[in-house]
């Protein structure tokens, strides 16, 4: 009897990424008809669409829905899209990160250079193209955690990545932006090619694209296809290692972050990283558990190398170098990628529950890193070269901004009052110990100590008295700002982004179980 294949479609289940994509198209079409003086409406529409997409996660909170399922005559049901708790948490992170990025981007898409003056660093980005690209990338990023077959996984990965290339290079006439986009493009295309080659090998060896079926069939691959399957697994993992900026595939990060518009750098540091780690979790834990003895040690070594390289490079950043603040955050994000790899490696030794520690750490990292970038974006309005030295005396000009940045940096360092940062690092550390990876736990502890130096050095600079001759306070500086201190040009959207991230960090610090409970819950 011929197998009957019935495909089910649950529109509510796929609503968050679909709505995000629909708003992206609506913004692109509206850009053709909206007059220049009303372009800010496009940004508000984009923000409204992201808020609505986040609201659509509420009806799915049970985490028990699937769609695009193929049901043969057998009892096995394979679905291409699954909205389980893992999917919902990552979609919350992705869409929330995109929303905060949109707030940071409002000024960048509507400000004009001074009349009669040469182009400034605040020359506006093209609104229609920017919002379309940001929402398109967010739609792909929201689709990826729900993907449960290799085809959907790769498509979602590229939908998230391709618009990001253009976002990085969207600054008109900026040589650094073009170079950054080219480096990002070349590294991502290489990663995609390697991933596709690996996926094709896995398909050839197993005859299926669905992750759960791959996991079953890899246990019984014919001998003549064993080498092909092993090569496919290895190549797929290498491709996702590019996406996560793991060493030695991290070379594009600092130049890309510096050359990109600051909101885009913030987006890549959180949402782009979440995309890579989500894909890595799905292919390792769901599709390739039978090869845990291969990818477990490999990821453990990558984790150690990545956190060490990132922290050492961040340690060497000169505070007087142009764009050193962004470079430090870029290298810090590489180091954080190393920490995020630890629980995935641990899952190879002690079960899928360890993956929850990566999700918990990613939630903490997303909130505080976006908050740090928000303060950097605020300071960059007055100091476009964005040196760490430019933050000297920030407390004198804006106590709230200085305290917020100090809170974010202390969270990244894992120090009080950033309780969520401390607990997240302890959770990741515990996952390594529980998995018997004592050497990796030691490496992580040493790296946390190294990171304390550059995080605390920047934090201390915020409260120091400015050195040298009193400087001119730019027009628009807040009243009471002392001469020689950092003078800030206020921005309501950026201030709102700082307030939201600070509030979220405070809530997570007061109630860390909200994030850390994922460390002890099976997500799949």
Short description:
This protein is mainly alpha-helical and 524 residues long. The protein contains 19 helices and 3 strands. The radius of gyration is 23 Å and the shape is globular.
Span between N and C termini?
A: 33 Å
Give the overall silhouette: globular
The number of helices is 19
Protein structure class:
mainly alpha
Q: Sketch the topology as an H/E string, one letter per element.
A: EHHEEHHHHHHHHHHHHHHHHH
Overall mean pLDDT score?
84
Radius of gyration: 23 Å
Low-confidence stretches: 1-5, 113-121, 469-484
What level of helicity do the residues show?
55-70%
The largest β sheet comes out as: 3 strands, antiparallel
**Number of distinct beta strands:** 3
Please indicate the percent range of residues in DSSP E strands (runs of 2 or more): under 5%
For the biggest β-sheet, the strand order reads 1-2-3
Task: Please describe the topology of this protein.
Blueprint: E1 7-8, H1 15-30, H2 40-55, E2 65-70, E3 78-83, H3 85-105, H4 127-143, H5 150-168, H6 175-206, H7 211-217, H8 226-243, H9 253-259, H10 262-287, H11 292-315, H12 324-350, H13 355-380, H14 394-397, H15 399-413, H16 419-434, H17 438-461, H18 492-510, H19 513-516
Antiparallel strand pairs: 1-2, 2-3
Helix pairs in contact: 1-2, 1-4, 2-3, 2-4, 3-4, 3-10, 3-13, 3-18, 4-5, 5-6, 5-10, 6-8, 6-9, 7-10, 8-10, 9-10, 9-12, 10-12, 10-13, 11-12, 11-17, 12-13, 12-16, 13-15, 13-16, 13-18, 15-16, 15-17, 15-18, 16-17
């Amino acid at each position: 009897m011929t197998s009957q294949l019935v495909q089910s479609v649950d529109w509510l289940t796929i609503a968050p990424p679909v709505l995000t994509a629909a708003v992206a198209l609506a913004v692109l079409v509206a850009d053709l008809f909206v007059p220049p003086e009303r372009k800010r409406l496009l940004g508000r529409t984009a923000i409204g669409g992201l808020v609505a997409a986040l609201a659509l996660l509420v009806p799915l909170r049970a985490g028990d829905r699937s769609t695009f399922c193929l049901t043969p005559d057998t009892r096995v049901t394979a679905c291409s899209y699954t909205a389980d708790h893992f999917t919902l948490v990552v979609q919350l992170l992705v869409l929330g990160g995109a929303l905060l990025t949109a707030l940071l981007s409002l000024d960048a898409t509507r400000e004009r250079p001074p009349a009669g003056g040469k182009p400034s660093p605040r020359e506006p980005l093209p609104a229609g193209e920017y919002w379309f690209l940001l929402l398109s990338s967010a739609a792909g990023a929201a689709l990826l955690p729900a993907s449960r077959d290799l085809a959907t996984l790769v498509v979602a990965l590229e939908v998230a990545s391709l618009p990001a290339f253009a976002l990085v290079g969207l600054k008109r006439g900026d040589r650094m932006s073009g170079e950054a986009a080219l480096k990002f493009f070349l590294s991502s295309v290489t990663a995609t090619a390697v991933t596709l080659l690996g996926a094709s090998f896995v398909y050839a060896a197993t005859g299926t694209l669905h992750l759960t079926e791959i996991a079953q069939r890899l246990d019984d691959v014919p001998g003549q296809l064993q080498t092909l399957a092993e090569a496919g697994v290895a190549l797929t993992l290498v491709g996702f290692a590019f996406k996560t900026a793991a060493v030695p595939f991290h070379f594009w990060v600092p130049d890309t972050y510096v050359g990109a518009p600051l909101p885009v750098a913030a987006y890549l540091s959180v949402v782009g990283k979440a995309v890579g780690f989500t894909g890595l979790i799905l292919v390792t834990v769901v599709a390739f558990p039978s090869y845990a003895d291969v990818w477990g040690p490999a990821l453990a070594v990558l984790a150690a190398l990545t956190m060490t390289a990132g922290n050492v490079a961040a340690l060497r950043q000169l505070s007087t170098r142009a764009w050193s603040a962004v470079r430090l955050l870029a290298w810090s994000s590489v180091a954080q990628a190393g920490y995020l790899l630890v629980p995935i490696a641990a899952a190879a030794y002690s079960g899928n529950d360890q993956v929850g520690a990566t999700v918990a750490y990613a939630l903490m990292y997303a909130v505080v890193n976006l908050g740090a970038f928000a303060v950097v974006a605020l300071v960059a309005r007055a100091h476009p070269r964005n040196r760490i030295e430019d933050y000297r005396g920030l407390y004198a000009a804006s106590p709230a901004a200085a305290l917020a940045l100090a809170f974010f940096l202390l969270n990244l360092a894992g120090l009080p009052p950033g309780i969520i940062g401390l607990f997240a690092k302890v959770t990741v550390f515990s996952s390594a110990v529980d998995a018997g990876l004592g050497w990796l736990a030691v490496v992580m502890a040493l790296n946390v100590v190294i990171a304390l130096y550059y995080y605390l050095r920047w934090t201390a600079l915020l409260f120091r008295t400015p050195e040298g001759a009193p400087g001119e306070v730019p027009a628009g500086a807040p009243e009471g700002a002392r001469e020689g201190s950092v003078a800030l040009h206020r921005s309501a959207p950026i201030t709102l982004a700082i307030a939201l991230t600070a509030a979220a960090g405070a809530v997570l610090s007061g109630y860390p179980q909200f994030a850390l409970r994922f460390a002890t819950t099976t997500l799949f």
